[in-house]
Design goal:
The protein is an all-alpha fold. It has helices at residues 2-30, 35-40, 46-56, 62-74, 88-94, 96-123, 128-142, 145-159, 179-186. Helix 6 crosses helix 9. The longest helix has 29 residues, at 2-30.
Length: 189
């Protein structure tokens, strides 16, 4: 029974990935002027547009373009950045460490707040503590992350004197620099 449920979930995930890939592919193809205008930006002469389309393989049939795109992505080849020319996979991997650090910090912060509040609300049902825990939860989920992030940066940096954020290019001297960026993310962790 459990194995069947897991297989079913993986099948749904595969269908979801297929649907998202189709939508992304279609959005790029339906952009005004075609993908070459989006990538190059601005007006193109028909000759330059044809050259760009041929270089990117956009002159091939749509089914061939889509299948080669999906097969390349399955191999881990996500193409090259049009901004820097670097492989996209390398750019993603370079940012994976800071992303995981931020995600882990947000998850830890969310658990440190949510678990005690949930336990308090469960133990003290229908009391002021239950109402307070529910209010804090509702407050936390109601505000947009970007606004809460700005307010927390102001609180930590201006009022409390903590560093507002930390650059990942230099070593942190204290864990305090990681707190502010994790706060808004912890609401959705």
């Amino acid at each position: 029974m459990l194995a069947r449920h897991i297989v079913k979930r993986f099948a749904y995930a595969g269908l979801m990935l297929f649907g998202v890939s189709l939508i992304l592919f279609a959005i790029m193809r339906l952009a005004p002027g075609g993908p070459e205008a989006v990538l190059v930006g601005g007006e193109l002469s028909p000759e330059i547009a044809a050259q760009v389309r041929a270089r990117l393989g956009l002159d091939r049939p749509l089914l061939v373009q889509y299948s080669s795109w999906v097969l390349a992505a399955a191999r881990g080849d996500f193409g090259r950045s049009f901004k820097t020319g670097d492989p996209v996979a390398t750019l993603v991997l370079d940012r994976l460490g800071p992303t995981l650090t931020l995600t882990g910090g947000a998850l830890l912060l969310a658990l440190l707040v949510a678990v005690p509040l949930g336990v308090l609300a469960a133990i003290r049902r229908n009391t002021i503590w239950d109402a307070l825990a529910s209010s804090v939860s509702l407050f936390g989920i109601s505000f947009p992350s970007f606004w809460l992030g700005i307010m927390l940066i102001l609180l930590f940096s201006e009022v409390l004197g903590h560093p507002a954020s930390a650059s990942t290019g230099e070593r942190l001297t204290s864990g305090r620099a990681s707190v502010t960026p994790c706060c808004p993310c912890s609401r959705s962790a």
